[in-house]
Write a structure and sequence with these properties.
The complex is a heterodimer.
Chain A (H helix, E strand, L loop, with lengths): L1 H19 L8 E3 L3 E3 L2 E2 L12 E2 L7 H6 L8 H12 L10 H5 L14 E3 L4 E3 L1 H12 L10 H12 L15 H11 L10 H5 L6 E2 L2 E2 L10 E3 L4 E3 L1 H10 L11 H13 L9 E3 L1
Parallel strand pairs in A: 9-11
Antiparallel strand pairs in A: 1-2, 3-4, 5-6, 7-8, 9-10
Helix pairs in contact in A: 3-6, 7-10
Chain B lengths: L1 H15 L1 H4 L24 H9 L31 H4 L2 H9 L41 H11 L5
Helix pairs in contact in B: 3-6, 5-6
The chains are: A alpha+beta, B mainly alpha.
């Protein structure tokens, strides 16, 4: 009896010890032995007052999860990339075209992800990667738009992101992007829902800490779409936002909504300087 | 023995008036963050309080606080301070105030307000992501707050 009580006390002390030292893992990421990934910086961009350094969510995952990202053969997110690579060459729609008809190889998309979301002068609005893809499908291919979280869409964003791996995120925050960025920033600090929690409460003030079993990261999006082990599939940026707002006991927003597009602009800018890492692996 | 009997009698008496003596969330009187009177009019039950503290769908206090005396609650968080010995740092009124609406004690704290009905920004229907219909009840009932406070009062150094 006494022994058991003692043993369980020891277990708690051990766990508390882990929690107290729950700093981001001191580790570096090189993919396939050839693509170095900047997962940490000593300085956030000057327009992000709340961060003195940046961390990819990779640092907050367990060692075995981190290791899966080191080699594409161990990365289950690459299955989605492969599916999209096949899709890239497939003719779809009334114009009889495939992505490859106009864009050559997927590698021609290198650098595109680093600037997303990007203001479209032609459309006069802020557009995410999903919106650019659907613009080509509906207006240039005569094909049907994909849903925001359709597997085909998420896979295609993973393919296009993967060819930017190692390049620094670099979304514009000024010029026509400014009003979207301001709206997103306002949202980031709004305490939503019955629990009255803002993104900043968890991802700015408490990254490195544990909320129940979850080791909080900075909520960066340089690794999206991410392969979530618990869902066993790739997940979009807006799908993650939706879940985080819902978990504050709030009425959440829809993927593709003007609110989430603005929030994506702002959250992407918090990661300007981190490497594109998609498809990354998370819990 | 005699004292226990007396206590029992007082408790029974208090339970008897519970229904009429409950304080609504909007009527709670905070004094420097503290609340002197029982919200339900009755005494709290520490065993029920322990359940509220460790259950995800209720208080889920262990999401943010470690409590060594509660080893059955796995994965205790560290957003807020450990609650070990908290009864030595706060008196009952102080704890009741913190559990009811911690923002009255700690300005702008991340700790949710458990005995409040709003106003909220985009209040949802629990964790469904859908809009709440009508005014939301507080996260915890008056008696659940009392139960939690009674449990916290057992956490002495």
């Amino acid at each position: 009896m006494k022994f058991r009580a003692l043993a369980s006390t020891c277990a708690i002390v051990a766990f508390a010890g882990v929690a107290a030292n729950a700093d981001p893992a001191d580790d570096t990421l090189v993919i396939n032995g050839e693509i170095p990934i900047v997962t940490h910086t000593d300085a956030a961009p000057p327009y992000i007052e709340g961060l003195t350094e940046q961390y990819s969510g990779w640092h907050f995952r367990e060692a075995d999860t981190r290791a899966m990202e080191q080699d594409d053969f161990d990365n289950p997110g690459m299955l989605g990339v492969e599916a999209a690579a096949a899709n890239w060459n497939e003719v779809d729609g009334t114009a009889g075209k495939a992505c490859a008809s106009c864009h050559e190889a997927p590698e021609s998309m290198a650098g595109v992800r680093t600037q997303m979301p990007k203001y479209s002068e032609a459309k006069g609005t802020m557009m995410t990667l999903e919106m650019y893809i659907n613009e080509c499908r509906t207006e240039r291919m005569g094909a049907e738009a994909w849903g925001w979280d359709d597997a085909a869409m998420v896979n295609m964003t993973a393919l296009i992101s993967s060819v930017s791996r190692g390049l620094p995120m670099n979304v514009a925050v000024d010029g026509p992007a400014a009003p979207y960025w301001e709206q997103g920033k306002e949202m980031y600090y709004t305490r939503y829902g019955q629990l009255e929690l803002s993104c900043a409460n968890c991802h700015e003030d408490n990254y490195g800490n544990y909320i129940r079993a979850d080791h909080l990261s900075q909520g960066q999006i340089n690794g999206f779409p991410v392969y979530r082990l618990k869902d066993a599939k790739l997940s979009s940026i807006h799908n993650r936002f939706k879940g985080c707002v819902r978990d504050t006991r709030a009425e959440t927003f829809k993927p593709g909504s003007p609110e989430f597009i603005a929030l994506e602009v702002y959250v992407a800018s918090r990661g300007n300087g981190l490497s594109v890492e998609s498809p990354s692996i998370r819990n | 023995m005699k004292r226990q009997l007396l206590l029992g009698l007082i408790l029974t008496a208090a339970a008897g008036v519970a229904a009429s003596a409950e304080t609504a969330p909007a009527d709670v009187a905070y004094e420097d963050g503290a609340v002197a009177q029982s919200l339900s009019g009755a005494a709290g039950n520490p065993e029920e309080g322990a359940k509220v503290i460790s259950t995800r769908s209720l208080g889920n206090c262990v999401a943010c606080h470690a409590i060594t005396a509660m080893p059955s609650a796995a994965f205790q968080g560290n957003i807020g301070p450990s609650l070990d010995g908290v009864a030595g740092r706060w008196d009952e009124a102080g704890l009741r105030g913190i559990v009811s609406d911690a923002k009255m004690t700690f300005d702008g704290t991340m700790m949710p307000s458990f005995y409040k009905t709003g106003p909220y920004i985009r209040p949802g229907d629990a964790f469904t992501g859908k809009a709440a219909e009508g005014e939301l009840p507080p996260l915890l009932s008056a008696q659940q707050i009392e139960d939690v406070v009674a449990y916290l009062m057992t956490l002495k150094e």
